[in-house]
Design brief:
Distance between the termini: 77 Å
Number of helices: 9
Order of helices and strands: EEEEEEEEHEEEHHEEEHHHHEEHH
Radius of gyration: 22 Å
Bound molecules: (3R)-3-hydroxy-3-methyl-5-(phosphonooxy)pentanoic acid
Number of strands: 16
Oligomer: single chain
Shape: globular
Strand content: 15-25%
Number of domains: 2
Largest sheet: 5 strands, mixed
Structural class: alpha+beta
Length: about 375
């Protein structure tokens, strides 16, 4: 038979939501109950690298994640593969005498190798980078002509947050109105050059896999949390407009206020869910809980004492803190303080963090 292999590689960073996506109105198509906004990280740090290959010698579609073979039978992979294959076009490599016609793509099998340079499924949006990268690499291999927004609607069917990783800078996932999901896609608000002063620090406090997957967590919240209904209808629509403005004008004070409030409301929705979901406190590690409380109240306190906010915090479905500093100087100060105060060494220490923080409630 024929011996050739054709390959493409792509690299995609993860993204961190500053207005959170939480709750689906359609679980199969992955359509959200509200818009969300995120910042895409620098590809040098948290990213996925995916190589996709096609060859007439391949017997079936196969995928390896961090060197370990994994099943592609899940609906999410199948949906992405099907949607991309539908849009595949003719590919020709004249030098090597390879020609793949449009109709050939249905019969040809793929091998996919993907690497994360960060812990998988620990609340660091590994699925976001993963599905975005997969869809992008396949689109390159198959000479797909759709633009990034159109590709984002495919990546969305792998993992909702993945649709926002097709762009750099600040990105908005528009929830859309259509039942078929055709208008539920990502658009770039500003590129990575727009707000270069921002400095993002990710404190990985636990790389354990989260206990409640975001899919079942969201389902339970949609079914049981009245706060989620209120958030989706009343809060997020206004907040996204304000957040877009804050980003446009590089207004860090508003940005920090909105991002912290939105992270806190997302976790409040989790607590309002039946049974309650505790993403921020990895209960098996008491120190993690203290650390989280401390970071939140420390940042709140520091921001107030400075007159103008220096740092915003945001937490996804795990205890890892994402801290967004207004500039390099604020970031350096923050790291210095984090290293100075941590870890708490005794119960007295622990109490003093928690009690000490009460003072911020008074002013
Ligand atoms: O894309 P998913 O299903 O992993 O959901 C991610 C949800 C959050 O990370 C908690 C929020 C967000 O908008 O990224």
């Amino acid at each position: 038979g024929e011996k050739w292999v054709l390959m493409k590689t792509a690299q995609t960073p993860t993204n961190i939501a500053v207005i959170k996506y939480w709750g689906k109105r359609d679980e199969t198509l992955i359509l959200p109950v509200n818009d969300s906004i995120s910042v895409t990280l620098d590809p040098a740090h948290l990213c996925t690298t995916t190589t996709v290959a096609v060859s007439p010698a391949f017997q079936q579609d196969r995928m390896w994640l961090n060197g370990k073979e994994m099943s592609l039978s899940g609906g999410r992979y199948q949906n992405c593969l099907r949607e991309i294959r539908k849009r595949a076009r003719e590919v020709e490599d004249k030098e090597r005498g390879i020609k793949i016609e449009k109709k050939d793509w249905e019969k040809l099998h793929l091998h996919i190798a993907s690497y994360n340079n960060f812990p998988t499924a620990a609340g660091l949006a590994s699925s976001a980078a993963g599905f975005a990268c997969l869809v992008f690499a396949l689109a390159k291999l198959m000479n797909v002509s759709e633009d990034e927004s159109q590709l984002s609607a495919i990546a969305r069917q792998g993992s909702g947050s993945a649709c926002r990783s097709l762009f750099g800078g600040f990105v908005k996932w528009i929830m859309g109105k259509e039942d078929d999901g055709s208008d539920s896609l990502a658009v770039q608000l500003v590129d990575e050059k727009h707000w270069e002063d921002l400095f993002i620090i990710i404190a990985v406090v636990s790389s354990r896999q989260k206990e409640t997957s975001s899919t079942s967590g969201m389902r339970e919240s949609v079914e049981t949390s009245s706060l989620l209904q209120h958030r989706a209808k009343e809060v997020v629509p206004k907040r996204t407009i304000q957040m877009e403005e804050a980003i446009q004008y590089r207004d860090f004070a508003s940005f920090a206020k909105l991002a912290c409030a939105d992270s806190n409301q997302f976790h409040a929705v989790c607590l309002d869910t039946l049974p309650p979901i505790f993403y921020m406190n990895d209960t098996s590690h008491r120190q993690v809980l203290v650390y989280i409380c401390w970071i939140i109240s420390y940042v709140e306190k520091w921001n107030r004492s400075e007159g103008t906010p220096q740092v915003a915090y945001t937490f996804d479905a795990g205890p890892n803190a994402v801290l967004i500093a207004r500039d390099r100087k604020a970031a350096a100060q923050l790291i210095q303080r984090l290293l100075f105060y941590f870890p708490p060494k005794s119960d007295t220490d622990l109490d003093s963090y928690l009690l000490g923080d009460k003072t911020i409630l008074k002013d």
